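Q: I'm building a small set of examples for a reading group on sequence design. Run inverse folding on the following structure and report the sequence directly after it, with nothing in between.
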């Protein structure tokens, strides 16, 4: 009995390495899940004005806002130029922060650009150059007229009441023109962005709406 038991024990011990190798082989034979490669997607940028520069920032910090996720404000210097609209760009499927520049003026957009397929991006740029010019004209013209009224009252006034009235009128003209002129002259351009997911077949990229 002891000899038989010893023999069984030796056979069991001899079979353990083979059993371990079989288990390892079974684990190695389990197929891994196939990796899914996210291909770049075509993003079509269109702007209301020719020459609008599209800027972007990778890996933006997103935070909650009343309208959903928003890009945490960052200096415009952290944005790199992507293209000049109208343009088509192949972008990785990720989230980007967008900004736009026209001339010396730049606007950052709070809405992140989520790319998960063909996408259309429209930038409506509000060029306020004419308002700034009007502000400068108002500032200069109002100041000149105010000084002229004050000077005339000083030369033509026959009493202190008339002199004070002319001076007050001139000062009011100057003050009003300075306030209005500065508000207009310092007014920045405005911009809005609209993101539209396009069909995966890419046919919308060639439609008249997105040419």
């Amino acid at each position: 009995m002891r000899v038989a038991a010893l023999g069984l024990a030796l056979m069991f011990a001899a079979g353990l390495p083979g059993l371990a190798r079989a288990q390892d082989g079974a684990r190695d034979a389990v197929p891994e899940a196939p990796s899914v490669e996210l291909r770049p997607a075509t993003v079509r940028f269109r702007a209301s004005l020719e020459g609008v520069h599209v800027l972007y920032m990778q890996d933006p910090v997103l935070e909650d806002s009343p309208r959903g996720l928003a890009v945490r404000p960052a200096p415009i210097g952290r944005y790199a130029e992507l293209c000049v609209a109208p343009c088509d760009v192949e972008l990785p499927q990720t989230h980007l922060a967008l900004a736009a520049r026209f001339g010396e003026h730049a606007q950052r957009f709070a809405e992140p650009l989520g790319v998960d397929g063909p996408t259309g991006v429209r930038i409506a740029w509000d060029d306020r150059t004419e308002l700034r010019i009007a502000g400068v004209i108002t500032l200069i013209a109002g100041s000149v007229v105010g000084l002229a009224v004050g000077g005339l009252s000083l030369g033509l006034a026959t009493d202190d009441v008339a002199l004070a009235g002319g001076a007050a009128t001139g000062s009011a003209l100057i003050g009003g023109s300075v306030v209005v002129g500065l508000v207009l002259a310092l007014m920045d351009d405005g911009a809005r962005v609209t993101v539209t997911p396009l069909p995966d077949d890419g046919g919308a990229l060639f439609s008249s709406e997105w040419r």
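The chain has two domains: 41-127+189-210, 129-185.
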